[in-house]
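[Meeting: bench + compute handoff]

Bench side (C.D.) handed over the final construct sequence. Compute side (W.E.) agreed to return the predicted structure before the next meeting so the bench team could plan truncations. Sequence as handed over:
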Amino acid sequence: MSLDFSAVPRMPDGRTAAEHIAAVEATASRKVRVPMGNGGKMMWHVWGENSGKPILLLFHGGSGSWIHWIRNVQPLSQHFTIYAADLPGLGDSDPPSDVRDVWSVTRCVETAMKELLPADKGFAITGFSFGGMVAGHIATLFQPRIRRIVMVGAGGLKATRKPGPKLRKLILMLHDPAKVDGVAIHMQIMNTTRAKTRSRDMGRAYKLSEVLPRVKTPLSGIWGEFDSTTYPHIQERIDLFRALQPDFQMNVIEGAGHWVAYEAAEAFNKKLISILSP
């Protein structure tokens, strides 16, 4: 299917959103598709490979790809070796065996991680929305090696969500409509048309809450103040995590929505680096 991006606003410097995305992608030290155990392959973009810096895995949100982290990969790579995943059935990754089953997704990620990551190295994970759900499941399989998981607007929690009118996806993602730029629009068109994994179904089944009691890895949180999946019930999420890990810290980025890593990238990057610093 040929997609029409002609109406997508250009960057301030005149480049198209596609050109900007490609320019950031070109700064990766490697992009690689690795086997994930079901006959398919999983795409990863790596920044700073062999740099000796601590390893940080980035798991994007539902109907997304590594592009959810486009404002983060370069600043974060100054401090970490970045492995940004396209989760199975999303982005440029092949689908899991069951696109409605989070464990099917998780087992594919597990196989790919064992193929890709140095076997003698620990790592941290930052999981956004659906990526937080996957990170929680992965934690039960790699517990001794994961030093911390940072949940970012994590999905799949059995907690109150304020009912509201059906809104366009990007308004759900970003609090300030003025922040919906060409890159966000281009990414949304491209990612949603490729998405095969049914991440929303898994979120509605509360799959993260189901697995969290088994997670022994230290957890932290970063949420946008006005995250549309949470506001105004953020304390309920804090209580949920602290019931399992009493020292859990929730970090709230003022004025930001669900896609906090994009909408408030500078504040997000600074906070994440602080959380993961030794």
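W.E. noted at the follow-up: The chain has one domain: 17-276. C.D. will use this when planning the next construct.
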